[in-house]
Design brief:
heterotrimer, A: 316 residues, Rossmann fold, 12 strands, 25% strand, C: 302 residues, mainly alpha, MetI-like fold, 15 helices, 0% strand, elongated
Chain lengths: 316, 422, 302
């Protein structure tokens, strides 16, 4: 399989009144065609910024360095028109709260017509609606919802409509940023099952951004664990969960509370501020295996073990 | 048996739906959200009782009702045997010293314009200092109040207290704010603490610390908890007994160990099944309930879970609108939609209680009658079994259901469960 | 200094000042500093008028309509009075009116807004209706009507202007209260058994107070203009009190002959209102929490 998306040394810095915030630092990540990659991390680790950076959806105070290559094209070098065309057509994104992405004054049908015409102005509304009905059936939304306004739909239906809007042009990659965080556990499972089945139908890859380790374990082929703007560990899902190598991944997995939990564990300390410069490993203050070198030298990620996992830790 | 600390009997809380002027004219004005619809439970002293359910099931409304932020529509609340359902201001004031809330979002629960020391001092100024024998001593002495705040900070591990007194909430970390909120509640020396999703906003890596902290406080101050959460795993770890809520009712309640070992209610089973497990080696295809939680303004007839239930029976509460849902679901498949186009579109169907009907006007109702009978037969299942008759009344095709069997909570294998299966 | 204000055990005012000082080097902060500087200079002029003004403002000191220059920096007007002296003395009028009118509208608008927003329901709707009907009148027209009924004098004019501004304070405060009242910390205060007045005074007021300085400066700028407008229309202060607006009304017909007698009072009205607007706009950028939150979000979204 070929690489669909390649991030190389991607960094995102926000200028704020308090100083520069390094939300993403030197991230390299590859997504193969037809796979689900889970990007997992806690709040403020930069995972959403990373997702937005791929689509160039960052606010003005952000500066991006490094490269984003999508299907061989340099995304960061595209003209505004080209990037608009790429978004939605080849690269789509869904968000945590679909309500903020749907125009409350527009019927669902008009969302579809507008989206289709944005990329293809010649399409007649009749044709557009036919296509809308097809994708809606794929996400199991009855077609009479087309005549409704977003607030008349339930939370799950809205997220399905958002997914359908993304599917219109059969994108090669869908970036799903906490797509189910606002939903309850049963709906969450429903939506992810749906994503999984659609993905195969549409031969699409998914970048699943989430804080939920359980979701990643269940649905993703590969996992990247982010901490403080950097990728701590990245590899195929089963071995990474079986034998986490980075102390942060280890701590994170130990602290999960599930139905088999008999004793509690939490990673000591609190996540660092991304404000200002840091030398060394960002996890150093909380790490129980820290060494003298960790404080001053950042451990460049290297391939470790038989499963060729990328780990950014001086232990390896 | 000793008297329970808190007893809730058949509590109902309805909220009016704020509809617009025109809607009210059209007669939709008396619609009410059935947030809590007949809930009964009790909590023994020293216990951790968990209310578990998805958003909108009414668990947070119960929390707010207990501390007097929301008024009960009917039912009774008893605290140590004393009726506190509709407390007068003075009783409410005293009640709030004994029942307190811990919020999901510690940051939002603290006024950004007040130092955290002041936040606690303010509570002490209003309620007085805790006295030696559980009484409260009013004081005007700012020094005494400051001393008391220091002690409270010390109790929750904010040391040195003087350092924290003058901090504003946004100068503290998430964990420290949690402790401030706990300190503010503890300053009242409550007996029952209602913890409403206390860890939902916290990152996984620090969640356990908050739970440990809550257990520590419980031991130190002999507290009783009502623990409200959507997370079955946390509830399993924390609670002695739990009640599973769905759409305003408790569907299953009993000892946590009993329920987790062998869930009985189909909804409990579904919830447990849906939890994602962080172990990729145990990937299984899950059987999930269909659809979503219905609107609490018009809860389903019979068992509220029946439209989604995988183990549903003919007597569970089938009604007119379930026919419409069936047609919608069925016609998601383009072939079926085409083959059965005659009975469509869905919006021509109208539900009214146990009846679903379609006005045919000048067209012959015969073919639609035949078709709908065939559809019901083909889809088979418990729903078809609940149909009393399909008929033609003039120009209208009518599907009518039998009324559901009476559903009451029953004792079954060491727990209370509200399901016709038991 | 900013840190001292923001951190110490401070009052509401201290916290607002702290927020401002924390951002005093931004463009908005510089605007505020310029505005404040100008307003303070005019205030000093007004206070020290007897010592600074070269002549008595109400006596004929030279022949009428002398052009600027020599002993009369801004020339003399139709009555042979020194324009500069009249401007210095005249600065007392707008400042006095600002002080009195904003105090009145704040004293009425703020509590009404707090109570109305917190109580909600019928009472809120009632107060809202009254306030909206006042607000619906064009401000100057309303001030003219009130001034015509109750007559001249600094107090009367201030009152007329105050009435126009009560609904603005009310509206802004009330809307802010209705959103702050939803915050969990307010609910928590209620659940902790705090009496109503304490909830409003200690938990809501400090969190809506940042709107006050902003309306205050806009209100003040408008008060200056309204007073000048009333004076030009002949509804201003009685003659004998030097007043910029009155001077314009007295001299503007002779603009082609003695432009300075109209121009300089007009210029000062412009300077004062612009300065106040600078303060208002700058504070708005700094203290308005919505703007700040958005900025913060854009920065910290991660």
């Amino acid at each position: 399989m070929s690489a669909l998306l390649e991030l190389e040394h991607l960094s995102v810095t926000f200028e704020t009144p308090q100083g520069p915030v390094h939300a993403v630092q030197d991230v390299s990540l590859t997504i193969e065609g037809g796979s689900i990659v889970g990007l997992v991390g806690e709040s403020g680790c930069g995972k959403s910024t990373l997702g937005r950076a791929i689509l160039r959806l960052l606010p003005e105070n952000a500066t991006v360095a490094g490269s984003v290559r999508f299907a061989g094209r340099d995304v960061l070098a595209l003209s505004p028109k080209e990037i608009r065309d790429l978004r939605g057509r080849n690269l789509a994104m869904i968000f945590q709260d679909p309500m903020t992405r749907l125009n409350p004054l527009m019927r669902i049908r008009d969302h579809f017509i507008e989206t289709i015409r944005a990329h293809n102005p010649a399409v007649k509304s009749g044709q557009a609606l036919e296509r809308a009905k097809k994708v809606l059936a794929d996400v199991r939304v009855p077609s009479d919802r087309l005549g409704m306004y977003p607030h008349e739909l339930s939370g799950g239906m809205r997220q399905r409509v958002m997914i359908a809007l993304c599917l219109l042009f059969k994108p090669a990659l869908l970036i799903a940023d906490e797509p189910t965080t606002a939903l309850d556990v049963i709906l969450e499972a429903q939506i992810l099952q749906l994503l999984q089945s659609i993905m195969h139908e549409y031969s699409m890859s998914v970048l699943l951004i989430t804080h939920n380790l359980g979701l990643v374990a269940e649905f993703s082929d590969r996992v990247a664990v982010m901490y403080a703007g950097r990728i701590a560990e990245e590899g195929a899902t089963p071995p990474l969960f079986r034998e986490p190598r980075h102390p942060y991944t280890q701590g994170l997995l130990r602290s999960v509370i599930d139905l088999e939990t008999t004793s509690l564990y939490s990673v000591p300390g609190e996540p660092p501020s991304l404000l200002g410069e840091t030398a060394g490993c960002p996890f150093y203050p909380r790490c129980d295996k820290r060494m003298a070198v960790c404080e001053t030298v950042y451990p460049e990620p290297r391939l470790v073990g038989e499963d060729h996992r990328k780990v950014a830790c001086h232990l390896y | 048996m000793t008297e329970p600390l808190l007893e809730v009997r058949d509590l109902k809380v309805y909220f009016p739906v704020f509809s617009g002027f025109v809607q009210r004219l059209l007669g939709g004005g008396d619609a009410r959200v059935h947030a809590v619809d007949g809930v009964t439970f009790s909590i023994a002293e020293g216990e951790v009782f968990g209310l578990v359910g998805e958003s909108g099931c009414g668990k947070s409304t119960i929390a707010k009702t207990l501390v007097g932020l929301v008024r009960a529509t009917s039912g009774r609340l008893l605290f140590r045997g004393e009726d506190v359902t509709r407390p007068d201001p003075k009783t409410l004031f005293r009640l709030r010293e004994r029942i307190q809330l811990i919020y999901q979002d510690a940051h939002a629960a603290l006024s950004p314009a007040m130092t955290v020391g002041e936040a606690i001092a303010d509570v002490l100024r209003t309620h007085g200092l805790p006295g030696p024998s559980g009484n409260r001593v009013q004081t005007k002495s700012e020094d005494a109040i400051r001393e008391a705040v220091y002690r409270t900070f010390d109790d929750v591990g904010l040391r040195p207290p003087a350092f924290y007194y003058n901090k504003y909430p946004d100068e503290l970390s998430g964990g420290q704010k949690q402790r401030v909120v706990a300190a503010r509640v503890l300053a009242l020396r409550p007996q029952l603490i209602v913890a409403d999703e206390p860890v939902a906003m916290l990152d996984m890596s620090v969640r356990a610390r908050m739970l440990e902290f809550l257990m520590e406080l419980k031991a130190k101050y002999h507290l009783t908890y009502l623990f409200i959460t959507h997370d079955l795993a946390t509830a399993k770890f924390m609670c002695d007994r739990i009640g599973i809520m769905y759409l305003g009712r408790i569907v299953e309640m009993g000892r946590a160990s009993t329920i987790y070992a062998d869930p009985k209610h189909p909804y409990t089973k579904a919830l447990l099944e849906a939890i994602p497990i962080p172990d990729p080696e145990r990937k299984t295809k899950k059987i999930l309930p269909r659809g979503e939680v219905p609107n609490a303004v018009w809860p389903p007839a019979g068992c509220r879970f029946h439209p989604r239930c995988p183990a549903v029976l003919a007597s569970c509460g089938w009604e007119g609108r379930d026919v419409i849902a069936l047609l919608e679901e069925r016609w998601l498949s383009p072939e079926l939609a085409e083959r059965e186009a005659l009975a469509g579109p869905v919006k021509e169907w109208e539900a009214d209680g146990l009846i679903a009907r379609r006005q045919m006007g000048k067209t012959d109702p015969g073919p639609v009658y035949d078709l709908i009978r065939r559809i019901l037969l083909e889809s088979g299942g418990p729903m078809a079994g609940a149909v009393r008759k399909v008929s033609i009344e003039g120009t209208v095709v009518v599907v009518e259901f039998r009324p559901p069997d009476l559903l009451v909570p029953k004792e079954a294998e060491g727990r209370v469960v509200e399901c016709l299966l038991y | 200094m900013a840190g001292w204000f923001a951190r110490g055990r401070t009052s509401l005012v201290g916290r607002l000042i702290g927020t401002f000082l924390g951002q005093s080097r931004t463009i908005a902060g510089i605007l505020v500093w310029i505005g404040l500087g100008v307003v303070l200079t005019i205030l000093v002029l007004a206070l020290l008028a007897p010592f600074i003004a070269p002549f008595d403002p109400n006596t004929k000191v030279a022949s009428p309509e002398l052009p600027p220059g020599g002993a009369f920096l801004m020339g003399t007007d139709r009555g042979g009075q020194d324009v500069l002296s009249r401007i210095i003395w005249g600065s007392r009028v707008p400042l006095a009116i600002i002080a009195v009118s904003t105090t009145i509208s704040l004293a009425l608008g703020l509590p009404l807004g707090l109570v109305s927003g917190f109580a909600g329901g019928r009472m809120d709707r009632g107060i809202l209706l009254v306030m909206d009907s006042i607000y619906a009148f064009p401000g100057l027209l309303l001030a003219i009507a009130i001034a015509a009924v109750i007559g001249r004098g600094i107090l009367n004019i201030s009152f007329a202007i105050a009435v126009v501004y009560i609904p603005t304070y009310f509206r802004v405060i009330r809307n802010h209260v209705t959103s702050v009242k939803q915050e969990p910390y307010v609910e928590a205060a209620v659940a902790l058994g705090m009496p109503r007045r304490r909830v409003i005074g200690r938990y809501i007021l400090p969190n809506v107070a940042q709107s006050i300085p902003v309306i205050f400066s806009v209100n003040a700028a408008d008060a200056v203009l309204t007073e000048a407008g009333l004076a030009v229309l002949g509804l201003g202060l009685p003659p004998g009190i030097p007043d910029w607006g009155f001077d314009i009304s007295l001299n503007w017909q002779r603009f082609d002959v003695s432009w300075w007698a109209t121009f300089f009072p007009g210029l000062f009205i412009l300077i004062l209102t612009t300065a106040l607007t600078f303060v208002g706009e700058g504070l708005n950028d700094i203290l308005n929490p919505l703007l700040r939150k958005r900025e913060y979000k854009a920065g910290a979204q991660a």
